[in-house]
Amino acid sequence: MADPYPVSGRRVITAEDIERAPPGRFEVPEGAILTPLALDLLRKRGQDLPANTGAPPRPVTPLVVANWKSFKTTAEAAKFAKAFRAVAPRGRAQAIVCPPFTALAALAGETGFELGAQDVSPFEEGAHTGQIAARHLVELGVRWVLVGHSERRGECGEDDALARKKVRAALAGGLRPILCVGETREERDSGRATSVVRAQVRAVFEGLDPDRVGEVAVAYEPRWAIGRGVVPTDPEIALAVKDARDELERALGPSGLRVPVLYGGSVALENAGRIVRLDGVGGLLVGGASLNPEGFAKLVAAAG
Ligand code: PGA
Fold it and tell me: Could you list the active site residues?
């Protein structure tokens, strides 16, 4: 897939560029993109900026990822694929389907969506009973993998250190990891949403080779919104996405701008089009609403 972000060819202004410039008002060149940290610096200096200056670039291709969790057998997955083919959604969004491991082979070769897995081993191969490694997935045509989903963090005790290893194993094996981050209800209520999201992004991406930046994505999924029919307010989503973007820039430099940051948690046809157009949002991660082929096709079309 082509680079989803229209950053190349445009001038990117970083906080360092502003710090190095002569004192006084910093003139933002026409058409330039300000990184999130650069934007913060100008605001902190009290420089008034025309509306929309430095808005994160809109992705050319929003990603809409279906997470089927532990639903659908091989036969049910094949039935979905047939029905989805018949209603092939139009638009710019790229659909990605993450079925259970056992249904991956049945979906290989489908052209209406790319294939993703829900997890990957942190090991390349070896004596690791039950682990499915990147090379096993790539062989089946899998291109993407979810890492650190909150149900794995919650039910299986996965932590940031393991997510970090899985992201690197995925990249080394030729997969594009989508790191899931997000706070619990209790963390939000105690004012820690920002620090939790930032720490989760930092723990995984710090030290990552910036050359791999075009191959990774992040999904902000507040744990309390998953499967509950509740979504955060638009400003809450925009703030968490900005938190993730700031940390991506700190870890990866200005090219962190090119990492798609998706939103997930009770995405439905009614809210998909609105959420995907919020500042900084580059796509959606969809659980329950991705199981029905016609419904998912409409949702993908609404996102594009
Ligand atoms: P949901 O799940 O859309 O059913 O809330 C999202 C997810 O867990 O990825």
Answer: 149, 221
> Mutate which of 218, 285, 299, 300 to test ligand 1's pocket (most atoms within 8 Å of Cβ)?
285
Verify whether ligand 1 is closer than 6 Å to residue 283 (CB atom). Answer: no
**Integer Cα distance of 26 and 14 in angstroms:** 12
CA 253 to centroid of ligand 1, rounded, Å: 30
pLDDT in tens, 35-81: 888 888 988 888 877 666 656 667 779 999 999 999 999 999 999 99
Ligand 1: residue whose CA is nearest its atom 2 = 287
Looking at the DSSP bridge assignments, the partners of residue 179 are 147, 218
Helix ranges, the chain (H): 15-20, 36-44, 74-86, 104-107, 134-139, 150-156, 160-172, 185-189, 193-205, 234-252, 269-276, 293-303
217-235 tens-digit pLDDT: 999 999 999 999 999 999 9
Q: Ligand 1: does its nearest atom lie under 6 Å from the Cβ of 285?
A: yes
